[in-house]
Write a structure and sequence with these properties.
Blueprint lengths: L13 H6 L8 H6 L4 H18 L20 H11 L6 H25 L3 H14 L7 H15 L7 H12 L8 H13 L5
Length: 201
C-alpha cells in the first residue's frame, strides 16, 4: 500500500537503531508527533516504547560460542514475527494496522511455544497416533509409519528449517526403494498431522 506521508517527514526507526548501537537524536520525537492528532500522541508513544523493548529480543545472546551464529533470545519464528512488527511505521494508518496484525501473530506464537514447553512427549505421541487412526491414515501400515517418523527426525535433527514440501520430498525419496507405494500425498498427510499436533517448533 502507498505511504501517504512524505518519506523525509517520517521518523527514524529507533527500534532498529538501538539494535546496531546507533544514537538517536533527542530532538526528533516532538517534530514527528505533530503528524498525529493530539489525542493519539500518547498512544503512539506507548506503542513505540513497547516495540522498542520487544526489539531487544532480536539481540544475540551474550556469551555464546563464537561458532554459533543466529542464536538469539527467542526462536526463529518469533524473530521473524518481531522483525515484521519492528518494521511497521506507526505514523501511517496502514502501518498501525500492520503492527496490530503482527502483534497478534506474535502473541499467538508465544502461546504456542509456551504450550510446547509444557507438553508431555509421550502423551503427544499417543495423541498423534490416535489422530492418525481417526483420520484413516493407517493405510501406510505400521512399518511404513515408523520409517516416516524416523526419516522426519533424521531430516530435522540438525535444526534445519525445512518447509513441509521439502520435508515430504526428503521422506518420499528415501522411502521409495523400500516402500514403492509411498507417495507425496500419503506422506504429506502424516507430515500435516505432525504439524497440526504442534510437533514442530
Amino acid at each position: 500500500n502507498a505511504i501517504n506521508t512524505e518519506i523525509e517527514r517520517l521518523p527514524l526507526n529507533e527500534a532498529l537503531l538501538q539494535l546496531v548501537g546507533n544514537a538517536v537524536p533527542s530532538n526528533i520525537n516532538s517534530a514527528h508527533q505533530k503528524l498525529l492528532p493530539a489525542e493519539e500522541q500518547a498512544d503512539y508513544l506507548a506503542a513505540k516504547r513497547c516495540i522498542e523493548e520487544l526489539a531487544l529480543y532480536l539481540k544475540p545472546c551474550q556469551g555464546t560460542p563464537v561458532n554459533v551464529t543466529g542464536l538469539g533470545l527467542v526462536s526463529r519464528p518469533m524473530q521473524r514475527k518481531l522483525v515484521t512488527l519492528v518494521g511497521c511505521q506507526l505514523l501511517e494508518p496502514e502501518g498501525r494496522a500492520r503492527a496490530v496484525r503482527a502483534a497478534r501473530s506474535l502473541g499467538e506464537r508465544s502461546v504456542t511455544e509456551l504450550i510446547l514447553q509444557h507438553q508431555n512427549p509421550q502423551q503427544l505421541s499417543a495423541n498423534l497416533w490416535a489422530a492418525v487412526r481417526a483420520r484413516g491414515c493407517q493405510f501406510l501400515g505400521p512399518a511404513m509409519q515408523e520409517e516416516v517418523l524416523k526419516l522426519v527426525l533424521l531430516a530435522l535433527e540438525d535444526g534445519s528449517a525445512l518447509s513441509r514440501k521439502v520435508l515430504v520430498m526428503f521422506v518420499v525419496q528415501r522411502l521409495e526403494p523400500h516402500f514403492p507405494q509411498a507417495s507425496k500425498t500419503s506422506i504429506g498427510h502424516v507430515v500435516q498431522l505432525l504439524y497440526r499436533a504442534s510437533c514442530f517448533k
